[in-house]
Amino acid sequence: MSAGERAKAKAEQIVGKTVRKAAHAVHKEALAAKGAALEARGRARGTKEQTKGAFKR
Q: How far is CA 43 from CA 2, 7, 27, in A?
């Protein structure tokens, strides 16, 4: 897993979590769902990169 891809995945997770929590605080459920989707996409990207790295060994 390249450092750049790992950073992108982690950044998406952090931004998504922040957006989700802030949206819940102000009762914006649609925005909270978008934040949760962004967080999940970051987790999926990280998992994908880890899997690619496992097969290269």
A: 15, 12, 24
| Alpha-carbon gap, residue 3 to 36, rounded angstroms | 24
- Helix, strand, coil abundance in the chain, percent, nearest 5: 90, 0, 10
Comparing 49 with 11, the larger pLDDT belongs to 11
Q: Is the pTM of the predicted complex or chain greater than 0.85?
A: no
The amino acid present at 46, given as its one-letter code, is: G
Query: Within a 10 A sphere around the Cβ of 55, how many other Cβ atoms?
Result: 6
User: By C-alpha distance, which of 28, 42, 47 is closest to 20?
Assistant: 28
Confirm if 36 and 20 have CB atoms less than 8 A apart: yes
Q: What is the DSSP letter of 26?
A: T
